[in-house]
Specification:
This protein is mostly helical. Helices cover 67% and strands 3% of the residues. The chain has 19 helices and 4 strands. It holds the Pfam family Lyase_1.
């Protein structure tokens, strides 16, 4: 049933907020803030309270009264409220609640701060949590990639360049490369976390405060690694969210390239892999279909993450260098969504990888029947015949062309055809024997002799995976330390405020 046409009129509002302004901007921002920013806002309030009391800016009784109010803020009720315009935003809604609970004392909680430095701190607290969740999902995927790579260190396959068969390698070598690329993405996300995890508190509107605010203490209480020193920069800089967006974009691009190949390899024509039943869907009309829709969705979701991250950068681009908070009301949700989408793809991809069936025989036979090994034949001529590589390359290239002219395969390369090419190129026949020729064309030999660092030799692949596992372990330790630091700060703040609240209740009761 079609919706009825609606006649649009100016809303005619004479008081703040205008009906349309509330509908388009303030209402959606309030909904987002309730869901994502209420807990960080309360955390900042509690940390600021502790700092004010420690610095002697609040007396004990006043601080205890505010602490008691902070411990009973009705979070669930506020989250259930619709935006009415009675309060401009969540900040004033919470401030009103604290005033109702603590009376005039609550007004002093805002000593030496502004919605500017407070808002940025809240955004950074929310963003750092989402960065850690995405990094955790990325580490889960990398762990699974390394397991998969090690199990296929001996699985022969052809590597492609320019979409054409290039040289023999192994599936383990290929997947280890994907894991290395992912590790760099994780490293960039860690760098984004480092840029994000700094405190704006004490910057106030943009010039700090005449009160003796302890900025470093605020950073410690909120689990930040330090302060953003310049106060103007603290409320104006948006590169912390830009770093996160850029890291997401590159990670989405890198993962998307791999996902695209998985989708191609799952075709019957490539016949490289079979996606497990939990991750395919059937056709409504074609009984034979096993549609790898999980991979298709990953491809589109990665594009979505890229687009949401691009929106963050585009919105920042047209924002003057100054107070960034109001723009961030609209911008932050795109960063949150981009990170959440990327993390969800990582988790899904890890499960798909863990359950793939690989057609090892198909890959091996394809490698054995391919001309992809002839680089090693040219290398063999360099070693055995003392030819320059370019000359050896010309001889082998001419031989391959001759074989292809009569529809032959790599198995038709013979000493006779090589000698004919050699006579044309260097004016003499070769001394190469049959055994060395066949070995040079064997894809297994090809990968075994490529044992240099980073090569496909199975032992080298396993050695490299061992190093990758050590890096993975270090990144997992970093993640746990980041979580632990934030948790420890939060627990300290909660214990302190709850203790003060208990003192207030005990005093009032007496």
């Amino acid at each position: 049933m079609m919706a009825e046409a609606k006649e649009w009129r100016l809303d005619g509002s004479e008081r703040f907020p205008g009906t349309t302004y509330a509908e388009v901007v303030l209402g959606p921002a309030f909904e987002q803030a309730k869901a994502e920013l209420l807990e960080p806002m309360l955390a900042v309030n509690k940390a600021h309270l502790i700092m004010l009391r420690e610095e002697g800016l609040l007396g004990e009784d006043e601080a205890n009264r505010i602490a008691a109010a902070l411990t009973v803020v009705p979070v669930a009720r506020i989250r259930a409220e619709a935006y009415t315009g009675a309060f401009e935003d969540l900040f004033f809604r919470v401030e009103h609640e604290l005033t109702e609970l603590a009376g005039e004392a609550a007004g002093n909680l805002h000593l030496g701060r502004s919605r500017n430095d407070m808002g940025i701190a809240i955004y950074r607290l929310a963003l750092r949590e989402k960065l850690l969740k995405t990094i955790s999902s990325a580490l889960f995927l990398r762990q699974e990639l390394l397991r998969f790579a090690e199990s296929h260190a001996d699985t022969l396959m052809i590597g492609y360049t320019h979409t054409q068969q290039a040289q023999p390698t192994t599936l383990g070598h290929y997947i280890a490369a994907v894991a290395d690329s992912l590790d760099r993405d994780i490293k960039r996300l860690q760098a984004a976390y480092s840029g994000c995890n700094r405190s704006s508190m004490g910057a106030a509107a943009l010039t700090t405060s005449g009160f003796t605010i302890n900025r470093q203490r605020m950073a410690e209480l909120l689990g930040f690694d330090g302060v953003i020193v310049n106060a103007y920069d603290a409320v104006s800089g948006a590169d912390y969210i830009g770093e996160a967006a850029s890291a997401v974009q590159l990670a989405a691009v890198n993962t998307g390239r791999f996902v695209q190949e998985l989708l191609l390899w799952s075709t019957q024509e490539f016949a490289v892999l079979r996606v497990a039943a939990p991750y395919v869907q059937i056709s409504s009309i074609m009984p034979q279909k096993r549609n790898p829709v999980s991979i298709e969705h990953m491809r589109s979701l990665l594009s979505s993450a890229f687009g949401d991250a691009q929106t963050v950068l585009t919105m920042t681009h047209n924002t003057p260098f100054g107070d960034i908070v109001d723009t961030e009301d609209d911008m932050q949700p795109y960063a949150w969504k981009a990170l959440a989408t990327l993390g969800s793809v990582y988790k899904l991809l890890a499960n798909v990888i863990a359950t793939l069936e690989i057609s090892k025989d198909v890959l091996r036979i394809r490698a054995e029947e391919s001309f992809a090994t002839v680089t090693e034949l040219a290398d063999t001529l360099v070693r055995e015949e003392r030819l320059s590589f370019r000359t050896a390359h010309n001889i082998v290239s001419r031989t391959v062309r001759n074989v292809l002219e009569f529809g032959g395969t790599v198995r038709h390369i013979s000493l006779r055809l090589l000698d004919e090419a050699a006579l044309a190129v260097i004016g003499r026949q070769l001394t190469l024997g049959e055994e060395k020729l066949r070995r040079a064309l064997d894809p297994q030999h090809f990968i075994e002799v490529r044992a240099l660092q980073g090569g496909p030799n199975p032992d080298e692949v396993r050695r490299a995976i061992g190093e990758q596992r050590q890096t993975l372990h270090e990144r997992q330790e970093w993640l746990e330390a980041a979580y632990s630091s934030a948790r420890s700060a939060q627990q300290l703040v909660e214990r302190t405020v709850e203790g003060w609240a208990h003192q207030f209740v005990h005093t009032e009761g007496a």
